[in-house]
Amino acid sequence: MIVSGVEGSSFLDYPGMLSCVLFTQGCNYDCFYCHNRSLIAHQNGSIGYQEIESFLKKRVGFLQAVVISGGEPTLHGELAQYFLLAKDLGFFTKLDTNGSRPKVLLELLEAGLLDYVALDVKAPWARYREIAGKGADPKNVQRCVSLLQEYQGTHPAFRWEVRTTLAPTLGEADLFEIATMLPEVNRWVLTFYRTPKDYRQKDEERINLPALGEREVVGLQERLLLLQPNLKRVR
């Protein structure tokens, strides 16, 4: 697995736990507003398995959880090996994914390697490729939603959330469509948009368009909660 970076400690990435975050290299989406554009290209990482193993062993008793994010982690064949390492050391585990590879997600779930999953839902299904690029297939994301819902039904301790970035061109109607098209989820996190530092020149106009902000979302929150009662956090 190509690991390009590590965040040594975070209270933000695993709800209620102190975690570290491993960032994998390579992504099969191309969201115009991406904040990790340097991680999209498939290139060599700088941190090997033994270095990660040593890092985690030194943090047993300090950290509670290990998060693997990206890029898109499910593109890497060795992903299960890293989660197994984390579980063997006694850590809780969390996967951040764009939902593009439901087969990999199912394999990780069936192996008991995941305690938490954060699934990005970028847009209404009809607008998916417009927002996330030509490689984004909403049917795969829909399958992941179903897998997570089914798995939690038989594993009550398991948790998952949906995350949506309030990117430019996503409006109020889009939020209500997302809230309606999803089943009731454990947690729906709306992330406020920040203009990325790195972007494609052709996206300059789009990334500078206005996006829904806190004032607008607070005004919608009461109605959104009727559709998704676990909209607990807006950040």
Summarize the structure.
This protein is an alpha/beta fold and 235 residues long. The protein has helices spanning 49-58, 79-88, 102-110, 128-132, 138-154, 172-181, 204-207, 214-227; strands at 3-14, 17-24, 65-69, 92-97, 116-120, 159-166, 188-192, 233-234.
Estimated radius of gyration: 17 Å
According to DSSP, the number of beta strands is: 8
Widest sheet, order of strands = 1-2-3-4-5-6-7-8
What low-confidence regions span 5 or more consecutive residues with pLDDT below 50?
Answer: none
- The rough form would be described as globular
SSE order, one letter for each helix or strand: EEHEHEHEHHEHEHHE
Structural class, from helix and strand content? alpha/beta
Walkthrough of the structure:
This protein is α/β, with parallel strands linked by helices. The chain is 34% helix and 22% strand. It is built from 8 helices and 8 strands, in the order ββαβαβαβααβαβααβ. Strands 1-2-3-4-5-6-7-8 form an 8-stranded mixed beta sheet. Helix 2 (79-88) links the parallel strand 3 and strand 4. Helix 3 (102-110) runs parallel beside helix 5 (138-154) and helix 6 (172-181) runs parallel beside helix 8. The longest helix has 17 residues, at 138-154. The radius of gyration is 17 Å and the shape is globular. The two termini are 30 Å apart.
